[in-house]
Amino acid sequence: MAHYRASDSKREQFRRYLEKSGVLDSLTNVLVALYEETDKPNNALDFLKHHLGVAGAEPADVEALHLELTELQQKWDLLMEENKDLRNRLLQYEPAPEDGAAE
């Protein structure tokens, strides 16, 4: 019987924790929104994720971002190479400053 009360106590503590942190309100609001939907979604879990704000990026979006990252990395590499080339060309026309020349 003592084991049963300890279990109830833990459940009550957990329930108070969820209530205090706002989890119960958020879940209740999302479930009410789902209940009030006239056209129920095919995937209720996706509905919950979307309304709780945990839906991840779409695979197409991720692929587009990877492609953009690759293109920007290539552009950066080209610009760095061009910068290096221009610095080398500049050094041909401008002598490096000497130790006593700054007077």
Could you characterize what this model shows?
Helix content is 76%, strand content 0%. With 103 residues, the chain is an all-alpha fold. It folds into two domains: 1-56, no CATH class; 58-103. The protein is elongated, with a radius of gyration of 31 Å.
- Give the percentage of residues in beta strands: under 5%
Largest sheet: none
Order of helices and strands: HHHH
Weakly predicted, low-confidence segments: none
Q: In terms of structural class, how would the helical and strand content be classed? A: mainly alpha
Q: What is the residue-averaged pLDDT?
A: 85
Report how far apart the termini are.
93 Å
Helix count?
Answer: 4
Tell me the number of strands: 0
Radius of gyration: 31 Å
Task: Briefly summarize what is shown.
The protein is mostly helical.
SSE layout and pairing:
Elements lengths: L1 H20 L1 H14 L7 H9 L6 H35 L10
Features:
mainly alpha; AMY1; 103 residues; elongated; coiled coil; MYC binding protein; 0% strand; 2 domains; single chain
